[in-house]
Design goal:
434 Repressor (Amino-terminal Domain), 0% strand
């Protein structure tokens, strides 16, 4: 992934986080913000695609950033984003989506519910034993490996959801949006792929 693609993901995360929409798809956000096709959004978020001047202007105005920062600077560094804290917010939101409350998470990790709330609000971070228990619980609940370094790995910028259950749910949701004729056309290819 190139610098522009990463920066677009960061901008999407920032905007969606302000709206407490931590799990919204970044490609859908880009489609809406720039009025582009879903394919164009995916290309921008995954490759070194060129951003048009008009689209760049939209982002410059919305985020009050210089063009060169958006195009080639490291927004994570420029803005001072704490990768560990953003990952914690993201993972706690993922747990909430599968109906694991902060109270239940606190019990599993062996901390107070207010501690989990502070992690979710970026007011503090888990360390030592509580971090280890949190990571084990993540692996059990989301299917995400505990070998991940939350201070380096940018989970919150991923385009696909972590864990098998979320990927399965996303595929089912996509299939449910298909028209009958579209499903009929795709069915043979899907069966071939899945067998």
């Amino acid at each position: 992934m190139g610098q522009l693609a990463e920066n677009l993901r960061v901008l999407a995360w920032i905007d969606l986080s302000k709206k407490k929409q931590f799990l919204s798809r970044k490609d859908e956000w880009l489609v809406k913000e720039l009025n582009i096709s879903p394919d164009a959004a995916i290309r921008l978020l995954t490759r070194d695609e060129v951003l048009s001047d008009n689209h760049l202007s939209v982002l410059v105005m919305k985020f009050n950033l210089a063009e060169d920062v958006i195009l080639s600077g490291s927004l994570l560094t420029e803005i001072g984003i704490n990768i560990f804290q953003e990952n914690m917010v993201y993972l706690i939101a993922m747990l909430k989506k599968i109906d694991i409350s902060q109270k239940a998470l606190a019990k599993e990790v062996g901390v107070d519910e207010h501690t989990i709330s502070r992690w979710a609000k970026k007011a503090s971070e888990p360390v030592g034993r509580s971090l280890g228990k949190f990571m084990v619980f993540i692996e059990e609940s989301l299917g995400k490996s505990v070998a991940v370094d939350l201070s380096k790995e940018r989970l919150f910028l991923e385009l696909s959801p972590p864990g098998r259950s979320f990927k399965r749910e996303e595929l089912i949701n996509l299939l449910n949006t298909l028209e009958d004729n579209e499903l009929e056309e795709l069915y043979p290819a899907l069966i071939k792929l899945l067998n």
